[in-house]
Amino acid sequence: MLQRGATAFLRRGACSSHASAFSTSAVAQSLFNDVPVAAKDPILGITEAFLADQNPEKMNLGVGAYRDDDCKPVVLNVVREAESRVAGSNFMEYLPMGGMKAFTDLSVQLAFGEDAKPIQEGRVAAVQSLSGTGSCRLMADFMHRFLPESRIWIPKPTWANHHNIWRDAQVQQEQYRYYKAETRGLDQEGLLEDLSKGKAGDVVLLHACAHNPTGVDPTPEQWKEISKLMKDKQLFPFFDMAYQGFASGDCTRDAQAIRVFLEDGHLMGCSQSYAKNMGLYGQRIGCFSIIAETPEEAKAVESQMKNIARPMYSNPPLHGALLVKEILGNSDLKEQWYEEVKGMAERIISMRTLLRQNLEDLNSTMPWNHVTEQIGMFCFSGISPEQVDSLAKDHSIYMTRNGRISMAGVTSKNVSRLAEALHKVTSGPSTTGP
């Protein structure tokens, strides 16, 4: 009797428990009923289509990661050497909120120059970030918190994630003209006209070198014009520098825009990434810095940078910072890195030359001088979205629909096939591309 009663009680409890779980499950489901499926990232879609293609000669020209002449990922020899030197030399404790100071000190020297006046005067606030994306996000949140009336001016076009970053930080965005489709070059007149509409305190996002996606950079003289206008309008420059050294093979040359603005006495911000120029994509290593008016101001700004990072990710990763510190802090490794990054840049430049030569040898009716006049990982080809679709469908060549070619995917083995395919899709009637 007692046993039957206990069994009944347990059964009732089990039923009640199941009912409660069902009810909770129903409520949980209803919480997310209105959540739509996010649109696919365009680069992810390209990669999926590329992987599904059975053509052994298929080409993926969408992904922005360096490849060697066999289209294989590369780990720099200097990185392997740095790994061997730092292995077992450190504990695995948390870094401070601002990251490794030795790393940030070396990073700002690379960006601004070792003898830069703001560094000597202690006016640079800097924290280690989660690569370039993390640097930009810290700047966006800093603007939202401390510059609520300031707008961010973003070039048109730009790396698509720039818009996402400042949108999610709830910063008002404006766009300025940058690329001129007719010339496949810089729209300097449009750029200056648009930025002249900025108000004092607005922030202007500038690509320090190797503009993504166009590969079009201002000349030193054009940078001076931009700097002067921004100084007159009291606009704050924020440089996104994802390709220092990787663009031309010369770290100083690739930082020339920043040096122009320094000479003109600007306060400024900078986002640095070591993904491309050291091949540390997965390590997520970057630096976010701001040049302030005084050392006291820099100290206050840096403290707030850290406070913004704290609830976002608490502190940055250790291993990649150790590698960069080891490379930049040792003259022998730094020299080796200079040579290796120059080699990567020169391979990209040589592919530009070969691609243009092959296209011109085919007697293409289109001008292709922009292929060699642009710089960096990406080439804005000038072909239309429909022609991009034709490349994928008929030639198994994949790229973003704005016609951006990742030159890292072009090799001495496939450049002639790419040229032939480009020649075929541009020979007939088409819509003008970007």
Automatic annotation (TrEMBL):
It catalyses: L-aspartate + 2-oxoglutarate = oxaloacetate + L-glutamate. Residues 57-422 form the Aminotransferase class I/classII large domain. Keywords: Aminotransferase, Pyridoxal phosphate, Transferase. Its cofactor is pyridoxal 5'-phosphate. The keyword Transferase applies. Its EC number is 2.6.1.1. Pfam families: Aminotran_1_2. It comes from the Eukaryota. InterPro entries: Aminotransferase_I/II_large, Asp_trans, NHTrfase_class1_PyrdxlP-BS, PyrdxlP-dep_Trfase, PyrdxlP-dep_Trfase_major, PyrdxlP-dep_Trfase_small. Belongs to the class-I pyridoxal-phosphate-dependent aminotransferase family. In eukaryotes there are cytoplasmic, mitochondrial and chloroplastic isozymes. Homodimer. This is Aspartate aminotransferase. The lineage of its organism: Eukaryota, Viridiplantae, Chlorophyta, core chlorophytes, Trebouxiophyceae. The gene is g1997.
